[in-house]
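Q: I have 441 residues here and want to know how they pack in 3D. Can you give me a structure?
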Amino acid sequence: MELQKTDTESNGGLSDEEYEPFRHRRVKKPNSTNGTIIHMLKGSLGTGILAMPSAFRNGGLVFGVIGTTLVGLIYAHCVYLLVSTSQKSCKRTRVPVLGFSETAQSVFRHGPAPTQGFANAAKAYIDYSLLIVSFFSVCVYLLFIATTLRDVINNELDIDWDTRIYILLTAVPLIFVTQVRDLRYLVPFSALANTLILVTFGITLYYIFREPIDLANRELFPEITALPSFFGTVVYAVEGIGVVLPVENKMKHPQHFLACPGVVSIVLSFITVLYNVTGFFGYARYGPGTRASVTLNLPSEEKLAVSTQLLAALAILFTLGIYYYVPMDILWRKVKHYFPAERHNIAQIGIRFGILVAMTGLALGVPELEPFIGLVGSICSATLGLLTPIVLDTVFRWSTPGAFGVFRWRLVKNVILMAFGLFILVVGTYFSIKDIVEIYG
């Protein structure tokens, strides 16, 4: 949506300082606070939790807990910065609601003079970054399904098919899944997928805890070279920044989102604890052999374990349609004017199919799940989930006297957090690509 000031009449002649965006929101069927908590949990609690034992394998038991808690705290703070900046931008521009990209546009347009010319570029950057994150996630999920099928079918049939064969086989049903454009047909499958993930997670915990866990011969701290992979995986698992503002914008009581305790503190505290428990005990159980998804460590000779692996793969398959819906909706709004109205249908079919072919080609080129998760976490999640909220908060405060606090402590804090985000982005990307090159070089 384009940024427009509400007219004086609709604001009742209020000044910028008196304008309260929440009073002017008109949301059909707004979500309750509890409903918002559930939506936030669904946004951050996904298959990334199954990768946490692998993260702890790289980080060690002690540092894994410290590092995961640190990432959880930083991400929670970045969510706070993003939502707070969006709400203050609404008040400044006197509009009731702003999305992620519109918030970036508003912040730059009304920020310091040197940033104002980049307002439209900031909006486009967020939109295209969300596209890249979503499509890369599709690639990760495609690899997850293919790897799971490879392990199960190769073991059951005593064959030795390569992962690439299963990638191609998985892509066949996705041709049809990714062509679904009506959200009504995708939501039931998403609900079923969430149920299957919970069942998978529950059975996985059963296998982790069914026998006493021995912590002997488990690393407590990481090697320096493993740190980027650890942080990249954790950030990928925790981050769900794309759903934050859409969920907050539809709240019945949006002031509860950043309250203490509020939606952010409750959801991310729960997720941080859950991810620590899963990562710690998953690595403690399987040790150096812990794989990119802990479901792949389940005993292949037991039918319950095999069915759990297949349930996880099926859950991801059901989820892929709705993951495809969001980026395609953004992309289609940007390109549909290039096509005559009578060719919109065939254009959508072609674009959706072409992107699936590209993602399948990428998966075929790098059919290893673990380095790809680290790469997506380093490039995409670190950029959107960590760096972007910090930059927006800094630009918003820059021209306001005293906005950074005594001794400009908020600016110092933002610089430190930005250095952490850049560390994950640059170093994590380097080591993830290095791992991929070593595997296929």
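Q: Anything worth noting?
A: The domain at 29-440 is CATH 1.20.1740 (Amino acid/polyamine transporter I). Residues 226 and 283 are 15 Å apart (CA to CA).
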